[in-house]
TrEMBL record:
Cited PANTHER family: BLL0828 PROTEIN
Cross-referenced Pfam families: DUF559 (PF04480)
Top-level lineage group: Bacteria
Gene3D superfamilies per record: VSR Endonuclease (3.40.960.10)
The protein's name: DUF559 domain-containing protein
Record domain DUF559: where: 4-111
Native species: Bradyrhizobium centrolobii
């Protein structure tokens, strides 16, 4: 578990610009009442964002997630995370940059049905 915690710390320090932009909108319970964590270990993965009480994981995917190998890897990752009791919401970097309000609305809507 310590290995995952140290990896999460490293990822927090080197987050992508899309993750940083989304984090600024999510941190400090800015999205309704939800407490979100960034680069949080879940099972054998470190997820981009998670709310433990809402049981939702938000993954921000860049262009590298469009190859068939990455799509399969993401599918397997999602299955493991869902087996841990979470719902997984994937958003693209482009959506974060060009439609942040829409992304926030999608997250909030997903949390309403927790």
């Amino acid at each position: 578990m310590e290995r995952f915690k140290s990896r999460a710390r490293r990822l927090r320090e080197s987050q992508t610009s899309a993750e940083a932009k989304l984090w600024q909108a999510l941190r400090n319970r800015q999205l309704a009442r939800w407490k979100l964590r960034r680069q949080h270990p879940v099972d054998r993965y470190v997820v981009d964002f998670a709310t433990l009480d809402g049981k939702l994981i938000i993954e921000v995917d860049g262009v590298t997630h469009s190859s068939s190998a990455e799509i399969e890897r993401d599918k397997a990752r999602t299955e493991v995370l869902e087996a841990c009791g979470f719902r997984v919401l994937r958003v693209s970097n482009t959506d974060v940059y060009e439609n942040l309000e829409g992304v926030l609305e999608l997250i909030e809507t997903s949390l309403r049905f927790e």
